[in-house]
Design goal:
The protein is an alpha/beta fold. The chain is built from 8 helices and 8 strands, in the order E-H-E-H-E-H-E-E-H-E-H-E-H-H-E-H. The two termini are 33 Å apart.
Length: 237
Amino acid sequence: MGVEPTTAIDVVIPCHNAGPFVREAIESVLQQGITDVRIIVIDDGSTDDSPTLARSLSPRVEIHSQTRAGIAAARNAGIALARADWLAFLDADDVWTPGSLAARLEAFANRPAADLVFGRLVQFHSPELDDQARARLPFEPAPSSGRFAGTLLARRASFLRAGPFDASLLAGEMIEWLARAEAASLVVERTEHVSLRRRIHGSNTSLRGPSSHAHYLQALKAAIDRGRTAFPPAGLA
């Protein structure tokens, strides 16, 4: 089945001091070949020029600023502004691959009962990292099927059935949300298309140290308490 090129999609991009990366992230959305895409950038208390840079890239980009509240709260602010039938997410330091949205829409066309479709991802070292930094930040280079926000395309109405992200979590919010999505009986499908390139640059949420790890444990406990196991693979949360 074909993919309608004018399908309306709202893409939420949380952004905090992502000046070196946000242009590449937004351009990867603009290059998807789907005309009816609105990009909602939530400036989460940035102190650099990333909001100004993002605004300059396209009239399809909207900027909404808030006091620093964390990635879950920033995504929730974007969700509250979304109006399209389809909802997607991209972190300001990551990049969608060519055909990322089309592949996920194709999966929906082939599986009409689906509420959520996840693509696959690959990780990459940010080009500015030197060899020493790269050695400190190893990762599995093969494509992964981890369920990340950046690989998700959702029917917005379905997403709202599970509710917003838990803004009390500064990390691991996707793990907790997935448990609620399964509890709400949302139908999850996937495409084998590699939809996301996840940038490793040393300041990723999952690499920030003990405080983030505590939030991951909190998210895992909440998910386990629901009796669900829809977790990303180890090392990819």
